Fold:
Amino acid sequence: MSNYRKSIGDLGERLAQTKLEADGYTIIETNWRCARGEIDIVAQQGAEWIFVEVKTRTSDKFGRPEDSITDKKKQRMALVGEHYIDTHDIDAAWRIDLIAITFDASRTLQRITHYPDIVGF
Structure:
């Protein structure tokens, strides 16, 4: 991954964390990895655990950020979420959310949209 793409992704993840905190979520950890994949943001809202995928783009030229979440990606996200719950011995409701972010070429925020429960168990 290029340094530019990584810096845009990192900026998007920081903005997503800020948005979640402003909306009353507690950030538990970020960039949690296991052999099955990665969770960008692990958060809680009340007793519910939320695993957040952050997708960031600098234009909609190749589609909106949310368009990149395929059914296969959702299945993998669900497996990673289940693994997190199992390995942390959590007995609580959980869901997977998406935060889609678009910047313009000068890194000015154009749009940030939070989609709760994108997998819908």
Remarks:
- Residues 3 and 48 are 35 Å apart (CA to CA).
